[in-house]
């Protein structure tokens, strides 16, 4: 009788261990990106971004050059000298030079030398450069205009290896690349429900993207914009694991009682 009780308790403990293992498992279908891409329709078109759209409060650097550089100088902001380490501006000691930036006003305009107020909102970098080049050509022959958005940053939070806010130098940033900057998802990140939060025209909008679906390439949220926030939700295994860890002391106490009881009954 005592032997049967001891065997039963050992069986119960074994079942508990097996159940804990099974609930912590993550299937392959939950972690592989772009599943079935090779079987997708051949006409599957990647949502190629047309470039970042300029928004209010963006910071832009704009440079104008021309074969006759002196003629282009009035269309450039003065270059600011940055102090060397350990020096001060009062001493007039400067190190590297830095371009001044244009702040996009709430009404979507910038104040540009000579030209005055220029509407920049909802234009991409190339469109604004073409607009300025066309206007400057009334004063300067063959002007070349370069525009950069210098405050392009995104935040990646949740179940990633290196969450944080990242400054982006490129004009294009896809969701997978942003996740790569954050060290990729952990094994516990929910790949089928990645949240992207975006502000458009002063309103918050969002979308949930399934990274296991090849058609995610067609989503307008696949390419990120300035100040987007990406959140990776933990999957069920991670939630259960966190709950298990919080109650680990309780489980250990119960197991200790069962083992002690088994020893007493089998004596």
From TrEMBL:
UniProt topology in membrane: Multi-pass membrane protein
Molecular function terms from GO: polysaccharide transmembrane transporter activity; porin activity
Keyword annotations: Cell outer membrane, Ion transport, Lipoprotein, Membrane, Palmitate, Polysaccharide transport, Porin, Signal, Sugar transport, Transmembrane, Transmembrane beta strand, Transport
Keyword Iron: no
A GO CC term attached to the entry: cell outer membrane
Pfam family of the protein (one): SLBB_2
Family annotation (InterPro entries): Poly_export, Poly_export_N, SLBB_dom
Span of domain SLBB: 153-232
PROSITE patterns reported for this sequence: PROKAR_LIPOPROTEIN
Compartments it resides in: Cell outer membrane
Residue ranges constituting the Polysaccharide export protein N-terminal domain according to the UniProt record: 50-149
BP GO annotations: monoatomic ion transport
PANTHER family: POLYSACCHARIDE EXPORT PROTEIN GFCE-RELATED (PTHR33619)
Family label: Belongs to the BexD/CtrA/VexA family.
Protein name as it appears in the record: Polysaccharide export outer membrane protein
């Amino acid at each position: 009788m005592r032997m049967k009780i001891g065997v039963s308790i050992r069986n119960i403990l074994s079942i508990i261990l097996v159940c804990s293992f099974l609930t912590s498992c993550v299937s392959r279908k939950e972690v592989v990106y772009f599943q079935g891409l090779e079987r997708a329709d051949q006409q599957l078109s990647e949502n190629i971004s047309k470039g970042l759209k300029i928004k209010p409060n963006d910071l832009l650097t704009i440079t104008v050059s021309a074969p006759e550089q002196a003629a282009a100088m009035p269309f450039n902001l003065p270059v600011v000298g940055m102090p060397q380490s350990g020096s001060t501006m009062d001493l007039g000691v400067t190190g590297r030079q830095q371009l001044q930036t244009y702040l996009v006003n709430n009404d979507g305009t910038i104040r540009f030398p000579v030209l005055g107020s220029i509407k920049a909102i909802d234009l991409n970098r190339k469109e604004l450069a073409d607009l300025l080049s066309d206007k400057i050509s009334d004063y300067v022959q063959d002007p070349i205009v370069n525009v950069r958005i210098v405050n392009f940053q995104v935040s990646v939070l949740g179940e990633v290896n290196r969450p944080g806010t990242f400054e982006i130098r490129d004009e294009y940033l896809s969701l997978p690349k942003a996740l790569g900057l954050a060290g990729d998802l952990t094994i516990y990140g929910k790949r089928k429900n990645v949240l992207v939060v975006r502000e458009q025209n002063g309103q918050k909008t969002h979308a949930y993207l399934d990274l296991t679906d090849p058609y995610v390439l067609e989503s307008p949220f696949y390419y990120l914009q300035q100040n987007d926030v990406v959140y990776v939700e933990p999957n069920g295994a991670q939630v259960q694991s966190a709950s298990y860890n919080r109650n680990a002391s309780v489980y250990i106490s119960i197991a200790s009682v069962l083992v002690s009881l088994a020893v007493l009954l089998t004596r």
